[in-house]
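Ticket reopened. Same input as before:
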Amino acid sequence: MPRISVLDMPDVPNGQLPPHIQLQKTRVFCEKNAPTHTDYVQHHGSYTSMDVHESLIENFHNNFKVNVIRLTSDVIEFDMIGIDASLANAFRRILISELPTMAIEKVYFVNNTSVIPDEVLSHRLGLIPLDADPRLFEYISDESSSSSNERNTIVFKLNVFCKDNDKRISVKSNQLKWLPKGSQLNSETDGGGNEYTSFRCSQDSPEFSHKPIGLKHDDIIIAKLGPGQAIELEAHAVKGIGKTHAKWSPVSTAWYRMLPEIVLMKEIENEMAEKLVKKCPVNVFDIEDLGAGRKKAVVSNPRACTLCRECIRDEGWEERVSLRRVKNHFIFTIESTGSLPPEVLFTEAVKILEEKCEAVIHELSF
Amino acid sequence: MEEGLRENSRSFTFSLVNEDHTLANAVRFTLNQNPMVELCAYSIPHPSDNIVNIAIQSTDKSAKAVFNDGLQDLRSMCQIVRDSFDKSVNDFRAELQESSESKN
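Engineering reply: fixed in the latest deploy. New output:
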């Protein structure tokens, strides 16, 4: 990287950063021992002495870009270009811990003679992803369980047993049966009249949902039953967020990485080029024929780079290959657990950050 | 949600209850981009407290007004992100449909 000495810089600032500082500002350098220039220049006035006044906010509307790379029913991969890590990270954090979903929170056991203790079985039930749109439900208030109604609770029933002389059986998630009309259990203490939920109407009416509520996967093994064992229970699912418990997290993972950028500092030809292509385990480099038996190495697939640094490990290669990351280009991946499609999860996450801002703006107005 | 010592002062520390790095780091970023801001930083005094402190020093506006501007900036950035994301997803879907139609 050519460095410009202070003495060689123009006497009058011309509103441009010297190329090496511009590079340090926009790229992370992944060197042999450690990455360098990993910091972000935060303050707007950092380069005032060079007459550079850049504000990400002013031109954000024009500079910000999103490219969708891959979109399936439960995974989205997209590029966010022209944004700061603080915002990308805010979206990631919200996706993991602040977007609500529905998950089983209370389990009422009628009978459990299986080898799995009640509390372990309840925990397993809690982790099962439900196929229910959390936007149709409200949070349950803390006051009492009697406030469970069709707007905040989903009820499932599990009633399985293994006959005396049968083989052992597996209890799978598809044996949980949805009860759209609410709990069927009666409280013993109150003389049998008091139910655990008070649904005013059935949840399978069209105003609730266009599709019946169920489980995302039918083949999750919940328990195993030996001959003569039985489980009878009712599971109540409520709305919650991942901050409270990971079972409410709507994503299995949400992560981002900065776009890799690989620059060949010198022409790499012939055997050296072939050596370089062989060094890379993910085939970032390719060979270009120059004619007359000459070959040249080129960077054909920088996106695949995992930054293993294998290509710069040997003596002398660090000067030939420069591994960098683009600081304002994020490759964002969201894997949904199934309550909402991944693209909806992201827009909901952005909405939550907006709501946070609005809440504080509202507080400030007093 | 917020508290401080003097109203209308140029330097002020806001304590936000029930917030964390998610909002504080994002709003610190937008505030630092604002030419009115001399200094802006945040800290979480103790990990088990539900509080984040955001300190702001401004050049001439009151810190409260600057904080408000920073939040408005963040909100409008979010709206831009949401709009361009939705547009890209729709474009991607349309493209996918087009290519599958041309195959048939």
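Residues 2-103 of chain B form a domain with the Gyrase A; domain 2 fold (CATH 3.30.1360.10). Chain B has one domain: 2-103. Please confirm and we'll close it.
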